[in-house]
Design goal:
InterPro entries: NAD(P)-bd_dom_sf, SDR_fam. It comes from Trichoderma asperellum (strain ATCC 204424 / CBS 433.97 / NBRC 101777). This is NAD(P)-binding protein. This protein is 37% helix and 10% strand. It has 8 helices and 7 strands. The strands form 2 sheets. The chain has a 4-stranded parallel beta sheet, sandwiched between helices. A hairpin with a 3-residue loop joins strand 6 and strand 7. The chain starts with a helix and ends with a helix. The protein binds NADP nicotinamide-adenine-dinucleotide phosphate. The site of NADP nicotinamide-adenine-dinucleotide phosphate (NAP) has 28 residues, from helix 2 and helix 4.
Length: 265
């Protein structure tokens, strides 16, 4: 896994809860809203009166509304380690909404115990971080290191974002992959102690991860010209890694993922 300078020395966030304009009338769909960065961005958008679909597997963990908002927080059941459940979640959303301003595909797991699998038997990270969000958006592993598997699932996210951008040119959709930064959240629950101690030195307050996402979703400087770009922490457009811009690779990966999800559509 290569590390960019911006991961260690993040850029200053340009968009925060202080300068984000009112979000009344906008609809946001936030998988992973029960914790971490998703909860942070949900809280900011809600403060700004947005309508937020808190997509999570646990209703009780998403209840955190504040009074001073005219926004709305609505629970949406979303279980990402079982592909058979995704269609129903998407249908439930579509039954309630005809617009969607931003989908934050942000739920995820990292370095679970080796051998962890989804209900369909996919390695947990490729299933939860990549295949299930791919299915949600679209309505033979050898025993390699668990970090490699995490990196693979995340590289897959970039390939999907870039390929989605290519496939939707001119449709008014902007598809972006991002690195939010480093934050101690529930994500590190399986990280070995020594690694976690080092990670803590280079991590920041989780709200900054929301700032990275806010930049990607709301910055007036991010326009269709940036479709398929990559955003570094805490909000700067950078070209995606060269190998992840390979058109043949992203097409192949898209088609492989499509084969995996087709039977659940
Ligand atoms: N934190 C960092 O330093 C960092 C750095 C780079 C990238 N990221 C990326 O940022 C994203 C968010 O990370 P985070 O730090 O916010 O992690 P987090 O605090 O662990 O939150 C992850 C969220 O994903 C949900 N989730 C996990 N498995 C699920 C499943 N099977 N079905 C439904 N929901 C599930 C969790 O729900 P439960 O509460 O139900 O478990 C939780 O709400 C991830 O994609 C991660 O790879 C994070």
């Amino acid at each position: 896994m290569s590390v960019r300078w911006s991961t260690i020395f993040p850029n200053k966030p340009t968009l925060t809860e202080k300068n984000l304009p009112d979000q009344s009338g906008k609809v946001f769909l936030i998988p992973g809203a029960s914790g971490g960065l998703s909860k942070e961005i949900a809280s900011i958008l809600y403060q700004k009166n947005g309508k937020i679909y808190m997509a999570a597997r646990s209703r009780s963990k998403t209840n955190d509304p504040i009074d001073s908002s005219t926004g709305n927080m609505i629970f949406l059941s979303l279980v990402l380690d079982d592909l058979t459940t995704i269609k129903a979640s998407a249908s439930e959303f579509l039954a309630q909404e005809s617009r969607l301003d931003v989908l934050y595909n942000n739920a995820g797991v990292m370095v679970p115990p080796q051998g962890s699998k989804t209900v369909q038997g996919y390695e947990l990270q490729i299933g939860v971080n990549n295949l299930a969000p791919f299915l949600f958006t679209n309505m033979d592993y050898h025993e390699e290191g668990i970090w490699s598997k995490y990196s693979r699932s995340k590289a897959g996210n970039v390939l999907h974002a870039v390929e989605y951008a290519r496939r939707t040119i001119g449709e008014g959709i902007i598809s972006i992959a991002l690195n939010p930064g480093n934050f101690v959240t529930n994500l590190q629950q399986n990280m070995p102690r020594m690694q976690l101690a080092v990670f803590k030195i280079i991590s920041h307050a989780p709200k900054n991860g929301a700032y990275t996402q806010l930049f990607a979703s709301h910055s007036p400087t991010v326009t269709e010209k940036d479709n398929g770009c990559w955003v570094s922490p805490f909000g700067k457009v950078e070209p995606a890694r060269k190998d992840l811009l390979d058109t043949v690779l992203s097409k192949q990966y898209w088609e492989w993922a499509e084969e995996q999800i087709n039977k659940y559509k």
